[in-house]
Design a protein that fits this description.
CATH class of the largest domain: Alpha Beta
Helix content: 25-40%
Number of strands: 9
Order of helices and strands: HEHEHEHEHEHEHHEEEHHHHH
Number of domains: 2
CATH topology of the largest domain: Rossmann fold
Strand order of the largest sheet: 4-3-2-5-6-9-7
Structural class: alpha/beta
Number of helices: 13
Length: 318
C-alpha cells in the first residue's frame, strides 16, 4: 500500500476484486455500498480525530475499507457485522492488523455489553471500553443505531458516521425547520453536532441512489435549564413528551399529545385533565406546535409530566 493512502481497498477495482475473489456481490437488502474514495476516508479520520488512545466501535465494516485506517490510527477497533459472508473477507483484508481487531457477528441493534466484553472491551481489560463510534452505517438503521448507542454505551464520547443526507439533517436540525422532530429532540439530549461534510453517490461502489453526509456528534450530559444532570427517568419523560408533541405534526401540542396518550391506554378524560396540569406547570402554551419548542422546553414538559401527569405517567411507560 502506498504510504500516503488510507486504505488499499478504496477504489472500485479493489472492491470489485475482493468481492469476485469470494464469489460475492453487494447486497442491496443490507444496504451495502462500499466506500471507494481515499480522500473521504482521510476526512472521516480527521473529523473523528481518531488517535492512539481510542477504542473505536464500527458498525458495518463491509470489506474493511474504513476499518483499515481506523486500525492504523486507533488502539483497537471492534466491528459489528451481520452479513455471514463477510467475516471470511475481513479475515483476509485485515490480516496485517488482526492483533488490534475484534469482530462481533450480529445485528448492531442487538449489540449488548456482554458482546463488547467478549471482544476485549471492558473496564480493566486490554483495550478498555469503546470511546468513539466511527462507521459507514447501513442507512436503513443509521438513525436508530446512533441514538441507541448514545443511550446505552456511556463510554462512547463521539460518533462520526456516514448517513443519508436527510438523516444528518434530522440529527442537526434547529427548531422551526422541517427536519426538526422528535428524533432531533431525543438525540439532542445526548449529543450535539460538531462537524459535517457531504459525500456524493459516486464515492461508493455500487453508487447509492441518495446523497450522503458524514456527521460528527459529541456526547453531552442530559441536563435541565439549571444545568443539573437529568435522571434517566427524567430523560425518558422528556423523550415521551417529544413523541407526543410530534405524533401529529400539523396539530397543536394539545391535540397531538391527547391523541398520543389516548393511544397508549389513558382515558380521554384523564388525558385532558392531566395535560392541562402539565402545560400549566411547564408554562407552555398548548396551542403551539411541536416544531416551535426547543430542547429546554421539552425537558420542562418532561419534568411537569412526572410531577403532574397522573395516569399519563403510566401510559408513557414511566
Amino acid at each position: 500500500m502506498a504510504a500516503d493512502r488510507m486504505s488499499p481497498l478504496s477504489s472500485v477495482s479493489a472492491a470489485r476484486a475482493v468481492l469476485e475473489a469470494h464469489g460475492l456481490q453487494a447486497k442491496y437488502t443490507l444496504g451495502q455500498n462500499f466506500l471507494v474514495n481515499d480522500d473521504i476516508l482521510r476526512k472521516i479520520i480527521e473529523l473523528a480525530q481518531v488517535g492512539p488512545a481510542d477504542v473505536v466501535l464500527e458498525v458495518g465494516p463491509g470489506l474493511g475499507t474504513l476499518t483499515i485506517p481506523l486500525l492504523r490510527h486507533a488502539a483497537r477497533v471492534v466491528s459489528v457485522e451481520r452479513d455471514p459472508d463477510l467475516p471470511a473477507v475481513l479475515a483476509e483484508t485485515l490480516a496485517p492488523w488482526q492483533e488490534g481487531f475484534s469482530l462481533v457477528r450480529k445485528d448492531a441493534l442487538d449489540l449488548a455489553p456482554d458482546d463488547l466484553r467478549a471482544a476485549g472491551c471492558a473496564p480493566g481489560e486490554p483495550g478498555g471500553t469503546p470511546t468513539k463510534l466511527v462507521a459507514n452505517l447501513p442507512y436503513a438503521v443509521a438513525a436508530t443505531v446512533v441514538l441507541d448507542f448514545f443511550e446505552r454505551f456511556a463510554s462512547i464520547q463521539s460518533a462520526t458516521v456516514m448517513v443519508q443526507r436527510e438523516v444528518a439533517d434530522r440529527m442537526a436540525a434547529r427548531p422551526g425547520t422541517k427536519s426538526y422532530g422528535a428524533y432531533t429532540v431525543k438525540l439532542g439530549l445526548y449529543a450535539q453536532p460538531a462537524g459535517r461534510f457531504s459525500v456524493g453517490p459516486g464515492n461508493f461502489f455500487p453508487p447509492p441512489r441518495v446523497e450522503s453526509a458524514v456527521i460528527r456528534l459529541d456526547r453531552r450530559v442530559p441536563a435541565g435549564e439549571s444545568g443539573d444532570s437529568l435522571a434517566p427517568r427524567e430523560v425518558r419523560a422528556a423523550c415521551a413528551m417529544a413523541d407526543a408533541a410530534f405524533a401529529s405534526r400539523r396539530k397543536t401540542l394539545a391535540n397531538s399529545a391527547k391523541t398520543w396518550f389516548a393511544g397508549r391506554g389513558a382515558a380521554p378524560a384523564d388525558v385532558v385533565a392531566a395535560l392541562a396540569e402539565v402545560w400549566k406547570a411547564a408554562d407552555i402554551d398548548p396551542a403551539r406546535r411541536g416544531e416551535t419548542l426547543d430542547q429546554a422546553e421539552f425537558v420542562r414538559l418532561g419534568l411537569a409530566l412526572l410531577a403532574h401527569g397522573g395516569s399519563l405517567v403510566a401510559a408513557a411507560g414511566l
